[in-house]
Amino acid sequence: MKVVVAPDKFKGSLTGAQAADAIAAGVRDVLADAEIVEVPVADGGEGTVAAAVAAGFELRTAAVAGPTGADHQAAFALRGSTAVVELASASGLDALPGGPDPLGATSRGTGDAIRAALDAGAREIVLGLGGSASTDGGAGLLVGLGARLLDESGAGLPDGGASLARLACVDLSGLDPRLVTTRFTLAADVDNPLLGVRGAAAVFGPQKGATPAQVSQLDAALARFVEVLDRVAGADCSGLAGQPGAGAAGGVGFAALALLGARRRSGFQVVAELVGLDAALAGADAAITGEGSLDEQTLGGKTPAGVAAAATDAGVPAHAVCGRSLLDDGARAAAGFASVVALTDYEPDPAVCMRDAAGLARRAGREIAQHLAERPAGGGGTIGSPRRAKELTP
């Protein structure tokens, strides 16, 4: 029997690789002779670099400006001339040294990380967008790559989205010349535009601590950024601001589309290709995926849903292990899961569940394996209708 274990991270508890190790250990407890292929996956957000490293990329680190401008170490992954740069590592909410800074947080560190990747020989960069701390339209990203943002007096603007309200000129003459010959792919599932009621400030600003008044302030500042950039960028910035994905990562998607010639693709699909998920699923008898929470967001393109879809295409039944599940039987079936095992069904205390996540994930892997053992290898189909872990437990 061949079992593919392809989870995302369990945020706050396990990395994707740790989750895969734990689940795989549980499968081995029951199916000692099984071929188990561990393929940690991500969707462009936190954990994307780790998934690439688990697939054979080399882990690199770079000194960058954190989301508040303080010195910070960010990770990226390199294989040949391809680099994976994760915005969450350089400019993410988890990189904030203190509380949220909705008006002043910057994406500059992501530009620093891209430069480090270029220095390491990268000429194709996958930029994972997700978990950003800033709403600066990618202005900080451009500064990190050599641009200058100036006010009416010719002075440089401070970091952050709010300062863009005073933007008078964008000097692109200092942009790193290697950008012209570098291909950028945005790994992002967010399809929001930059501005307006579905824009970066309105939809994601509150998650970064912005009040309603600050949301309006940031949206107006981003509009000013588009207006000024339109004059100097040689691209239809106003049109690009309305493109799906321009609002990703606080508007970093916009800057990448407008200045880096980036192409946006599904974050999960990009990572799945990098880690060779389809090849791993070939000839498999079952796939086990998972993440911290299975909920409505999962159905919108998060890793477990992506793995389930890929497994279905390969004729492989997919099972999920999660910290908690908020999906009913119908939603689980529609997502393509043959079964779902939630760690909270073993340990209802969330704090204990997170603390003991590895042991509980191993238990979940063991339980799924017990049911896999009840049917012939290569039998196809599923091991039963979707059900809760407590209903799966013998």
From TrEMBL:
Q: Which InterPro entries match?
A: Glyc_kinase_flavodox-like_fold (IPR018193), Glycerate_kinase (IPR004381), Glycerate_kinase_RE-like (IPR018197), Glycerate_kinase_sf (IPR036129)
Q: Which UniProt keywords apply?
A: Kinase, Transferase
* Database matches in SUPFAM superfamilies: Glycerate kinase I (SSF110738)
The record's annotation in Pfam families points to: Gly_kinase
- Keyword Transferase attributed: yes
Q: Where are the transmembrane segments?
A: none
One MF term in GO for this entry? kinase activity
Q: Where is this region: Disordered?
A: 372-394
What family does this belong to?
Belongs to the glycerate kinase type-1 family.
Q: What is this protein called?
A: Glycerate kinase
